[in-house]
Specification:
Blueprint: H1 2-5, E1 10-12, E2 18-20, E3 31-42, E4 67-75, E5 79-80, E6 101-103, H2 114-132, E7 137-142, E8 175-177, E9 180-182, H3 201-209, H4 221-224, H5 237-242, H6 245-248, H7 253-260, E10 264-267, H8 278-291, H9 297-310, H10 313-331, H11 336-343
Helix pairs in contact: 8-9
Length: about 375
């Protein structure tokens, strides 16, 4: 990420309204970070603290109530990934005005799956980005949820394969070995009619690669214990096949889709949502909805779009700058509490006890 930041624009000034593009070498493209996240707004999510007369406690509605699921993208350049009001939309691209998708989640209503995110990417986010940033490369940033790192149903994954042909193993996609296309299912002109159109399995694929050895097990004991030592490369069929170039180059479905449009993808570290500046954006939007909460479903549907637009571009850029500083502190070796403490400013006579700084790096003392 630090290498990509050198090709990204920066913003200066008191309100970060002045954009400064990097000086790029010939053949290099401008990169723009596009961060993504999802959040849920509830009907009964109102103020939790308020002043009231003694003995006159307000009544709160129990439960969360109905909810709205929001999937949105943010950039430092334009804020929310949406076209300006004065932007002209050509009929050729059939663009929507914004990349945001709002649904009502629930078992009998709407569901949000990976295919919905991919459709949002291909139909909205990527076309809008390319309209706003012609010639630039998007760096889409996602958290490491199971949906965002999921593979296609026909992806080249050894874990889905059996040792023998047929069975319940899925039919994997075609691949290329030594410059020759290799099919992962038996052809319909195969001598054994029972194998027509059936998945090959690891043994047949390894025989075609010239890597099969007699008495080779599907998975050895060490691999079952997730002991993948570099010196053990031919211990079992699973290990041998997983180290082949075509299997090693297999990417998650979301990454394949984004890279097919010549853009890039990065993932935030696990359990570090504080590095995603859209989290601060959600917080500001929910403050807006809580202040206007009247515990009505119709009001929530009206308030949520207003809340998303209530956060200014300057504020979004400040959020991004804060997370950028936090990333750099992690690179410098600070822990989470140390990085958070270093963000706090001391004013007047109030200061932090020196004992709290004993683990800080010398550069911060």
């Amino acid at each position: 990420m630090s290498k990509l930041q050198k090709s990204m624009p920066t913003f200066i000034g008191e309100d970060l309204l002045t954009r400064v593009d990097p000086i790029l070498k010939p053949g290099k493209k401008l990169h723009v970070l596009v961060t993504h996240d999802e959040s849920i707004f509830f009907t009964n999510d109102g103020k939790k603290f308020l002043w009231h007369k003694h003995g006159d406690m307000p009544f709160y509605v129990k439960g969360h109530g109905c909810s709205l699921h929001v999937s949105d993208f943010l950039t430092e350049t334009f804020g929310r990934l949406k076209l300006p009001v004065d932007a002209t939309v050509t009929e050729e691209r059939d663009l929507t005005r914004e990349a945001c998708v709002i649904i009502k989640p629930g078992g009998n209503v709407d569901n949000w799956k990976l295919k919905d995110l991919i459709q949002q990417m291909t139909k909205k986010a990527i076309p809008i980005f390319e309209t706003l940033h012609p010639g630039a490369t998007a760096v889409f940033a996602f958290d490491q949820s199971t949906a965002h790192t999921a593979y296609a149903s026909d992806a080249l994954l050894v874990s889905k394969m059996n040792l023998r042909p047929g069975g319940k193993q899925p039919k994997l996609c075609c691949t290329v070995f030594n410059g020759v296309e290799q099919h992962m299912v038996f052809p319909y002109d195969h001598p054994d009619k029972d194998l027509h159109g059936q998945p090959k399995g690891m043994e047949a694929v390894l025989r075609e690669h010239g890597l099969w050895e007699d008495r080779l097990k599907a998975k050895c004991k060490k691999c079952r214990q997730r002991d993948f030592s570099p010196e053990r490369s031919i211990c079992c069929a699973t290990r041998i096949l997983s180290l082949q170039p075509d299997f090693l180059s297999q990417r998650p479905l979301l990454q394949e889709v984004i890279e097919s449009f010549n853009h890039k993808i990065v993932y935030y570290p696990k359990f570090h949502c504080e590095l995603n500046f859209i989290e601060l954006f959600w917080g500001a939007a929910k403050v807006y909805t809580r202040n206007l909460c009247d515990y009505k479903w119709s009001s929530l549907q009206k308030t949520v779009p207003e809340a998303l637009d209530s956060v200014s571009l300057s504020q979004i850029r400040k959020y991004a700058r804060k997370t950028c500083r936090l990333m750099q502190k992690y690179r410098d070796g600070l822990t989470g509490p140390e990085a958070e403490l270093s963000e706090k400013r001391r004013s007047s006579h109030r200061c932090v006890c020196k004992s709290l700084y004993q683990n800080f790096n010398e550069t911060l003392l």
